[in-house]
Design a protein that fits this description.
By secondary structure, the chain is of the alpha/beta class. It contains 13 helices and 18 strands.
Length: 374
């Protein structure tokens, strides 16, 4: 049994804390009383109210723990991870910050820290699966389609955000990077829309977002892309917001006050996009990996479909992100994965035993990555 601290008690952070508390002593930290009150019924989880925007505060909070989980919003993620590494603590992080994680690689190595980053569903499990197959064969093509959606298609956006709306909106504004014929290519987010049919769901719209992240640096694969899935019609509304300036990062002055339009938009959309306690939702992901092994063509397809767990009050996105994170926590605690420095999940996937552990750990919690070999 280890002493663990989870920084952030939002929807995913709470699920992580609950899962880890089955085996370990867990402390959960957040500034939001509502988030912490949710955990009050779990006697094995200690809670602390604190502002995690201060690096010195973070270092003080984590000094007596064996491992840290980073589950703060993306805009806080890089600074938080840096503080954790400076304190010399092993960490598994799901904050999905926009900065280059490898900027902290040398710091982590010099402090003898194992830092697993981007350890969710996508990025996360998609990286793990590609890392595994890239070790086993010569991969030529990788594509990942992924999305989290409500079952009820409520106009106008037909969407609910399982995490901070500002993080979602930033996915819609960052340039999408992918790899084509061995070259990195940049296209606007929301581009190259296509309709894909999924059994039991129907038609979803896939479009470019900047989801490859570390894979662009770590994988020497000629063709790689990730696309986000939404209900048809959502993308046109987002394009309209983008075209009219509602997603702009440049501050404007209104009544002698400066405000970023994207912050205003995220605040307005919070109520419409908020995933309520009784809302049913699902996560869907399809991964296609093609290449050669022993001069023979191979293609592997992985499908994931998961729904909200009402009994345990865990959203699907919290489950698919959180259980990937807690699986990695157990790998690091056990010493089965102890690589020093910054490690995105593709590095974990290179070890077959670690890959199997991650897959099996989540299967025990009802998350099944169904593999098809063509």
């Amino acid at each position: 049994m280890s002493n663990l601290i989870v920084l952030g008690a939002g929807m995913v952070g709470r699920t992580i804390a609950k899962d880890l508390s089955k085996v370990h002593n867990v402390t959960s930290v957040d500034i939001n009383d509502n988030n912490l009150n949710f955990l009050a019924k779990y006697p094995k989880i200690n809670t602390i109210k604190s502002n995690l925007s201060n690096s010195d505060t973070i270092k003080y909070l984590i000094k007596d723990y064996d491992l840290v989980v980073g589950a703060v919003p993306g805009f806080m993620g890089f600074k938080t991870l840096k503080a954790i590494i400076e304190e010399g603590k092993n960490v598994v992080d799901i904050s999905f910050f926009p900065e280059d994680c490898f900027l902290l690689d040398e710091l982590a190595k010099s402090n003898n820290v194992t830092a697993v980053v981007d350890c969710g569903v996508a990025p996360g499990m998609s990286n793990l699966i590609l890392g595994y197959h890239n070790k086993m064969m010569v991969v030529s093509d990788f594509v990942c389609y992924v999305g989290g959606l409500p079952f009820e298609r409520k106009l106008y956006f037909q969407y609910k955000a399982p995490f901070s709306p500002i993080d979602v909106l930033e996915e819609y504004t960052r340039e999408a990077r992918y790899v084509e014929n061995g070259y990195e290519v940049k296209k606007p987010a929301l581009s190259d829309a296509e309709i894909i049919n999924f059994d039991g769901i129907g038609s979803l719209e896939a479009f470019n977002t900047d989801g490859l992240r570390s894979l662009i640096k770590t994988m020497n694969i000629p063709n790689m892309k990730e696309k986000t899935l939404r209900y048809p019609g959502h993308i046109e509304l987002i394009k309209a917001l983008k075209a009219t300036g509602f997603l702009s990062e440049e501050s404007i002055e209104i009544n002698d006050q400066k405000i970023k339009p994207i912050d205003f938009t995220a605040n307005i959309l919070f109520k419409d996009w908020k995933l309520e306690k009784d809302d049913d939702e699902f996560t869907v992901m399809k991964i296609e990996i093609s290449g050669k092994k022993n001069d023979k063509e191979h293609k592997f397809i992985y499908n994931l479909f998961d729904r909200k767990d009402f009994q345990n009050d865990d959203s699907s996105m919290a489950r698919t992100t959180g259980f990937a994170c807690t699986a990695a926590v157990e790998l690091v605690l056990s010493g089965k994965f102890n690589r020093k420095g910054i490690s995105p999940p593709e590095f974990i996937g290179e070890d077959e035993n670690c890959f199997d552990f991650m897959i099996n750990y989540q299967a025990e919690r009802g998350l099944n990555y169904i593999k098809t070999v063509l």
